[in-house]
Amino acid sequence: MEIGFFLKKSISYFIEPFGMVLALFMIGLYFLFTKSEGKAKVFLSFGFIIMFLYSYQPFSNFLVIKLENQYPKFDYKSDAKYIHVLGNGHSNDLSQPLSSRMGRTSLMRDIEGILIHLKTEDSKLIFTGFAGPLDISTAQMNADFAMALNVKRKDIIINDRPKDTLEEAMFMKTILANEPFILVTSATHMPRAMMLFKSLGLNPIPAPTNFYKGKFEGYFRLPSVEFFHTSQIAMHEYIGILWSKLKASI
Fold first, then answer.
1. pTM higher than 0.85 for the full model?
2. Which of 27, 99, 151, 172 is the most exposed place for a label (fewest CB within 10 A)?
3. Domain 82-209: assigned CATH number
């Protein structure tokens, strides 16, 4: 794994909600055991506040809606012949069925891409995403799932080299230039993906899926791991957008 990619992932881990809360608790416990009770109270209290805020449904919903409302669902009326499904994580545990090894995000992206492909005559599905530490890439896993649903191999293009969205966009530039194509990714990820693809002069048509926003059910809601997870996803995207803009301005 390239050192730059590793550093990016390591830094982002500790400024996203889970890593931030973990770091605050660890620092607080350190001060507690070194008898610096005042500092321990500050860090532990701050950690609890952050954890509560990100686990609170109105706040997590606010974060995710700002991302997911930027692009509406796809209308299945485009005549673009290429459908690019962005990669996501997966498992190589062969004791599980293929659908479970893909995980929620990959599964929803893949299904949406397949639906668009089936409604678009003579279209091609493009799957990207590297393997990481596993022995099969996300691109290949998504392609295997598509073929299990009777998508023909001749209608699939696989590239298992891209490690992130920018590299996926760079690959698309080499094969499509400025030809319109349908871009399938999570609704939270779509704003960053569109920004990166357009920055290379590409012409993507958004087809968001895997929405996390929920109906507002009042302010009197207990914190939840589910809402914390939603906040984690949203903050990952906000940080990614900021990082991309900073890189572009340097």
1. yes
2. 99
3. 3.40.50.620
